[in-house]
Amino acid sequence: MKKILLITLLSLLAVLFGCKKSNTSGDNNTSGSNVPVIGIAKLLPHPALNAVEQGIQDELKEQNINVTYDLQNANAEVSFINSIATKFKTDNVDIAVGIGTPMALALYNTIQNRPIVFSAITDPVSAKLMPSKDKGGKNITGVSDAVNVEEQLNNFRKIVPFKKLGLIYTNSEDNSIAMYNTTKEVCEKLGVELISQAITNISEIKQAAQSLVDRVDAFYVVTDNNVCSSLGALTDTAAAKNIPVFSSDPASSMQFGGVLYTAGADYYTVGRLTGKQIIEILNGKKTEDMPTRYVQGVEETKVIIDANVVKALNVTIPQELIPANAVFLNQ
């Protein structure tokens, strides 16, 4: 019995931490030291982070960059996050990529002698990953998914003139805390009451939504990894009480639906931009000379409108908020 348990445990560890490698040229030849190894680690699997991971690989493939990947997923477990960072350090990957703030922080705190590229991080300066917005770090640079919260809330209020806004955020994630603080400041400026509920993990989202739904006029979904990975728990609760949900994460809105209006970074594009930074580093550019890249313009952002929700709530989306590349769900 002990032997069976040991074999099972070793198998699970091999799946979790084993190198899941692929080569852009398709030959999977990793024996030569001339083929760079790119370690990509994401905090957990959800639509936005998955899109970033895919965008990185597609960019390098399109540019005919021959590399091998070590793809890792921490499943939002702190012990896994640190183990992956240690693995990348021990394996001497040529470039370590952290998708999501906790993953990027673990890499940054563990690896000092290899380039690190972060992706889909809202505020890398507050997270102490970057010295400033205008300068790269000694061995780190990356791409931010930051949005203009004041502009977003003003646009959202053109659709539904809410006075009380509900927000669920993870109180252990730097990115979520930064978004909560920014949203709170903006709401105070706009005269909107922000009613929030902190969570520690995904299982608490439904209960948090239920505790807020009778006290708010609308919900705002920020780029919180836990909330975005289980968005349906929030949208189902809101729909039952005809409360609109607005979001800054197009990827999760595309997958789950139920969000009235979404405006934010196109996460596949974030991945492509991250891939471009990786290529620059492979070509010899120093991270210190590479400031954080922020998404900008309609080409790098996405608007999603759920027609079913528009109809259910009997609202009208102003034409000025519908760009030419807007995506309509359930139309």
Q: Any overview of this molecule?
A:
The strands form two sheets. This protein has a seven-stranded mixed sheet with strand order 7-6-8-9-10-12-13, with helices on both faces. A six-stranded parallel sheet has the order 2-1-3-4-5-11, sandwiched between helices. The longest helix has 17 residues, at 174-190. The protein contains twelve helices and 13 strands. It is globular. It has helices at residues 2-17, 47-62, 78-91, 101-110, 149-159, 174-190, 205-212, 225-229, 231-240, 250-256, 267-282, 307-313, and strands at residues 37-42, 68-73, 95-99, 116-119, 140-144, 164-170, 193-199, 218-221, 245-247, 261-265, 293-294, 301-306, 327-329. It starts with a helix and ends with a strand. It has 331 residues and is α/β, with parallel strands linked by helices. Helix 3 (78-91) packs across helix 4, helix 5 (149-159) packs across helix 6 and helix 7 (205-212) packs parallel to helix 9. It is 41% helix and 19% strand. The protein has two domains: 2-144 and 267-294, Rossmann fold, CATH 3.40.50.2300; 149-266 and 299-329, Rossmann fold.
Q: Main β-sheet, in a few words?
A: 7 strands, mixed
The mean pLDDT is 90
User: What pattern of helices and strands is seen along the backbone?
Assistant: HEHEHEHEEHEHEHEHHEHEHEEHE
Range of helix content: 40-55%
- Rounded radius of gyration (Å): 21 Å
- CATH T-level fold name of the largest domain: Rossmann fold
Question: If helices are DSSP runs of H or I spanning 4 or more residues, what is the number of helices?
Answer: 12
Let me know the CATH homologous superfamily of the largest domain: Response regulator
Domain module tally: 2
